[in-house]
Amino acid sequence: MENKGCVLAVDDQPINVKLLSVQLQSAGFTVLMAYGGQEALDMAVAHMPDLILLDIMMPYMDGYETCRRLKANPLTAGIPVIFISALTDVAEKVNAFKCGGVDYICKPFQKEEVISRVGTHLNLYFLQRSLKEKVEEETAKRRSGEQMLIQQSKMAAMGEMLGMIAHQWKQPLNAISATAQDIEDAFIHNELDIEYLHSSVITITNQTDFMLRTADDFRNFLRPSKEKILFNVKDAVEEVIFMFSPYFAKSGIGLNLGFTGEEFSVTGYPNEFKQVILNLISNSKDAILSRKDKGTANKIDITVRKDDRIAITIRDTGGGIPEDIIGRIFDPYFTTKTPDKGTGIGLYMSKTIIEANMGWRLSVSNIEGGVEFRIDT
Length: 377
Hints:
Layout: E1 6-10, H1 14-26, E2 30-34, H2 37-47, E3 51-54, H3 63-72, E4 81-85, H4 90-98, E5 103-106, H5 111-188, H6 194-222, E6 229-232, H7 233-250, E7 254-260, E8 265-268, H8 270-289, E9 299-306, E10 310-316, H9 346-357, E11 361-367, E12 370-376
Helix pairs in contact: 2-3, 5-6, 5-7, 7-8, 8-9
C-alpha cells in the first residue's frame, strides 16, 4: 500500500492513540504515537511528521500549549496540527485555531471523518511544500541568472575600463620614458650627478605610485561588496567622477558635480552603487555622442541632494529618449544601440541593484534637451 504520509497521534489515553493508529494505518498512513505534550514536542523534532493529531485535555502540558510551542519552533512551525477533543464548546474551537490549528475533530471521532480530514490537510501540506520548493528553486535560478547578468555587465564594462586605464597611464608612462631618456643623455654628456639621479628617481617613483594607485582603484571598483555596510554617497560619487572624468573629457564631455545638504551616509553596497553611477553616466555619454545636434554643449550634471532622504540626479544633454520606449529602457536586453555598442544589460542591472538589492528607487524622465536619471534612497 502506498504511504500517504506520516502522522503523529498525541493523546494521554493510550486506547485513543491505539485506535487512531489502527484506523490511519489501514488507510495507508504511517503513524507515530505520543502520550503527552513534551513527548509530542520531542518526537516532532526527532521525526518531523507530516501532520499532528493533538488532544487538548492532557496533564502537565495541554494541547493548546503544545501547539503554541510547536509553532514557535522554526523546525516544526510548518507542520499542520488537527485538534481532536471531547470539548465541543465554540470557544474551545476558536482557541484551537488561534493557537495555530488547521482543523478540529470532536470525540467520539468517526474513522471516515478522521481519514478524510487527515488526507485533505496532508494533500494541502504536500502541495504547499511542493510550491515552496518550486519557488525556492525558481528564486535560486533567478539569482543565478542575475549573477550571470551582473558578470556580463561587468565584463562589458571592463573593456571600457581598460581604455580608461590606458588613458590614465599614458601621461605617467610618457613621463617615465622621458626621464629615462634624460638620464641616458645626461650620462652621455657627463652631466649625471647624484642630485640629478636622485631627482630622476623621485620623478619615476611618483609616476609609478600614481599608476599603482590607479590599478588599485579599478581593482577595488570591480570587487563586489559582500554585505551591506554604511558608506558615504558623496565620497562614492566623487570617487567615480575622479576616476573617469579624464576618460569622458577625452570624448569632449564635461562631468559637473554638485552637493546640497550635509551627512550623506547610507547603508548599502558601495561598489555596486558606484557601478550604477558609472552605468548611468556611460549611458548619458553614449546618448550625447550619438546626438545629431552637435551644437549643444556636451555635459553631464551630477547632483547629490540631502533633504529628508538622499537623492542623486544625473542630467545629460543627449537629446532625450523617445516616449514610446522610455518605459522599456530598464528591461533586460532592451537597447537601441548596435550590438557593438551595447547589450541592454547595464540599465537593467542598475535597476536591479538599486531597487531589488538596495531597496531604493531608480527612475528616468525626459528633461529639456536630455534625460534625468534619479536615485532616491
